[in-house]
Structure formats: C-alpha cells, structure tokens
Amino acid sequence: MTPADNSAKVVEALTDDIGDTELDARLAELGVDAATRASALLRSRAMREEVSRLRRREHELGTLFASARDLAEVRDIDGLLERLVSRAHDMMGSDVTYLSEFDSGTRDLHVRKTIGSVTPQFRRLRVPAGMGLASRIADSRSAQWVQRYSEYDEGTHDTDIDDAVHGEGIVSILGVPMLSDGRVLGVLFSATRQEHVFAPEQIAMLSALADHASIVLQTANTLAQLRASEEEARTALRTLTEHVAVRDRSNTVHQELVQAVLVGGGFSQVATTLARALGRYVTIVDADLRILASSEESAHISAIVSMGSAAHRAVEQSRSTGHCSYVDSPSSDIQVVAAVTAGELYFGAVLLSPGELELGPVDDRTIERAAQVAALLTLQQNAVADADQRVRHEIIADVLDPSPERRRDLDRRARAHGVDSSTLDTVLVITTSRSRSTATSLVAQHFRNGLVSEYSDVLVAVIHSSDRIASATEVRRILLSGGVPDVRVIVPPPAPSVDVLSDRFDVAHRTARLLDALGIDDGVVTTESFHPYMVMFGSDPEAVHSFIDHTIGSVITYDAEHGTDLVATLRAFVRNESSPTKTARALSYHTNTILQRLERLRLLLGDGWRDDEALFRISTAVRLDALRAVRLR
Length: 633
Known about the structure:
The protein is of the alpha+beta class and 633 residues long.
C-alpha cells in the first residue's frame, strides 16, 4: 500500500461516524502510533460535538424561522399560540410546556395553553400576584429556573399552585418572561418530571420562542383594541347618525310649529305636526280637559278627556318641572304629557299616546317645544279674545242700557265685529253655579253672529232667533255637555226693536232674582210663566218667603209636627176649582176624607179662608211653595 493510500484511509476513518474504540482500532491497523491516535481521538470527539451542535442549532433556527413565518401570516391567535407552545415542547424535550398570560388588572397569571399536561387542575391554574415562581419571573422580567421545585424557597408558595405542580409530577421548571415595551404579557414555561439542569442554549431557545409568543399576544391585544376602537367608532357613528336624524326631525317639527304661530295654523296644526313626527296620537286639552285639537279624526273637539290618576300626576309633575313627563301606568292610553303653561298660568296639556318609535331626549324637547307653542297660541288667542270681548262687552252694555243715546253708533261698532244689530231680537240670561268663564267661551262660540258677555253679574246673549225656546234649550245642552253644571236660561219675550232689548233684559234679570229666592237654579224658564209673581215680588224677591209663611205657614208647620200632608190637599183644592169632589177624585180619596181635611184647614187658616180674597192669597202662596220645593228641569 502506498503512503497516499494509507493517508486516505486514515482520513476516511476520522470522518466516519464511529465511536472512539472503533476509531482507535482502525487507526492502529493503519499503523498509526499511540500518541498520534490519542491526539486524533481528541480531535475527532471535538469535531463530532461541533457537528452535533451545528445540527441542533440548524434545527433550532429552522424552528424559529417556521415560527417567524407563522407570525408573518398570523390569523388564528389561539392556533398560533398552540403551535408555539408545541414547538417549544419539542425543542426543549420537556415533559410539560405551558404559557401563562398576565392580567394587568389583577396582576394574576393564568394558564392559557399547555402541552403534556395530564390534570385539569393544572390546565386551569391561576397564579395570584406575588405567588410562586411565575410571579417572581414577572416581577424580575428575567428567566428563572429551579432544579427541584419542592425545594424552591425564594418566593411565596401557594397551596393551590403546589398541589397542581405536585399533581403533574413536575420536578424542574424553567420560565422566561414574555415582554413588550417593558410590559409583562406572560410567562413561557418548560418543565420536566425528573431533575434537570437547563443549559444556557435551552434558556436562550425558550426566550426566543417567548419573544415570538409576546408578539402573538401583543398582536392579539392590538387587534382587540382595533376591534374595540372600530366598534366604538361604529357605535359613535351610529349614535351620531341617529342623533342627526332625530335633530333633523326635530328641526322640521320646530319649523312647522313656528309656522303654526306665524300663519295662524292653531292647535290642530300643532297636534298633527307632532303626531306625524313621533308616530302617535296627539291630543291638546285645555285646563278643564276639553279637547282643543286632536290628530284623531274621530275625536270630538268639545268632548272632555278622561284621564287616570297616573296621567293626572304626570301633568302635575310637568307643571312643576316645566318638562314633559311619562305616565307611570302601562295600561294608560296616555304615555307622555307636557303641561301648557306660561309662568304660573296653566292652560292645559299636550297628551301623547303610546307608539312604536322610542322617544329620546331630543323628542322630549320637541314635545316640550310643542307645549310652549300651544301656550303661545293660547296667549295669542286670549289676547285677541280679551280685546274682542272687551269691545263686545261695551256694545252689549250699550244695547242693554236704558239710555237711547248710548246706541247712536251701535250699527257701525256691531258690524265691525260681524254683528248686524238690526236683526237682534232675543235676550237670553244664563246663570251657572260655577265655570262662568268656560260658559262665556262656549256660548260665544255658538253665537258668533250675536253678542255674548257678562253683564250685571249674569251671562247675557243678545241674538237673532226665530225660536227663542229652542235656542235657549240648545245653549243649555251645549253648556252641560261642556262640563258646566246647573245651567239656567231665562227667556223673556222677543223684542220688536233694538231699543226694547233693554226692557227685555230687565224683566229677565228680575225674574232671575226671583228664581234665586225660590231656589230654582236649573232649566229653561220663560219670564211669562213667572209674570204674576214678578208683579207681586219683582221689587223684593226675598219677600216671597215671608208671604208664604204668613199665608200658609201654619199648615206647613202642622204637617211637619204631625207627619200629615195637608199642604198637598190644599194644593189640589186650589187647582180643582175649590171643589171637594174634584179634589177627592184628583187625590183618589173619599169625599168625606177630603171634607175632614178641609175642616182641619179651616181650623189652621181661619173661618174665612175660602173667601175670594183669602183664597187668592192662599192659592198664590201654595203655587209659590210648590215652585220653591220642586226645582225645574
């Protein structure tokens, strides 16, 4: 064998992947001396360790490159963390590898991903702040490891943590922090179930993978923040869009409400505008709950709204606060109310039914604006009505005054208010127990071509009527349906001219005083039916009571003391031509019974009670007593 061939075989022996013993034998066969063989063995061993290190490094770099590619294509955060923990598990050759995420709020660490774990307790492990090895790593922001966890005494132990570690059979643990801009995001752990010393290369490898895990968690946090920001932006945009829509609707409503004031649209335009904008029925009522306007076509304008106690409380709250108020009753037909006020003055309310549109603060302000517009309309109408009423009061005072000179310019002034004074021929004197202002308004609305005003403590209507009784009956019906109680209408005879209207009023007014004395405060009454009594008591109506007491008071007293009814017998007697027979027939008694009662009346009234003059007075007193006892309807 040539020297060249021998050298080639030596090189081949050195490069083969064989053990030291076999290499030494082959070199001895090739004639290599002992000292050279020893040197060759040392160099071969060093070369194999370097090759092994390079291969391991190549594998580690390949793992890191693969992890980097995953980071570049990050989609599924949980899946990527799972692969990172799995790669760390493979690279470290550990029994258990797990990632604990740091909660910045509580400063706790909770296990998020595990590989090799066998107990549920460990997979759900949560490390409280300041406890265990994990907290020490988070606080120090550096890698920490223990060769025997059971002997670890550099931190505070927690029973739950120790039980979980013992349950997994873990002996040695290496942990490296996951950091981002100095903030701790979590800790990546590698653990073995037998005692193990972690090499610097392993710590470096786990730290590199922890950096990758940090990027994943940081990306997850950034994506979460981006999603939250995006959702906040969408919510803000949605809220802004809704707010703009509501504001636009509100501005449109406000413009239409202003138009209602400027062009005289009135309460009807306010109700329909608000109803169209808010999608619900709207009713505007006055202080007496009479409907002024409604968005419902079927609503009767003169009707009175019936509200429950909850709605009344809501109106009172709105009056006190100046804002609209919601009715606290799910069964109520009214959901929202807004009082119509001006300072301390209360004019009524705007009532809204339930609807599908959910009302917000801007809608509440719109309702309140509608109530303010209704208040302006009321003030406007009241001002006009007051001015007109003052003039009409002056005109009606001139018409009813006995002095003819006050009617010199009557025609012109009456025509200026739509009244033809030459047609006025009827006077109606109207009295009520209360609500006189409401009665004045209702009567004035009914008789637009007449004169209506309060005069001499009564309500007077001077009108043209072809049927004065029918006109009086209709006025009484309107007032009763409008909620005005105890309506009495006194009708004097028609007046052939305007100058006679003053006399007709005087008769009706004196009749009213007589009716007051008799307690007749309701019904339609003609002055003709009380004319005889007016002749007797017109100057002093209260004297009617003393006349009755003086004439038949003894009979009234006897009935009260003995439980009899001689007054009824006396009334039937005077109405039946003073005939005992006719009286008995009218009362369904025997004639003898009537004769006995007439004898008792003689004893009470005196022997001459059936004489013409005495019987006239008694008949008058009996009729007046009947009127006093029975109120006309």
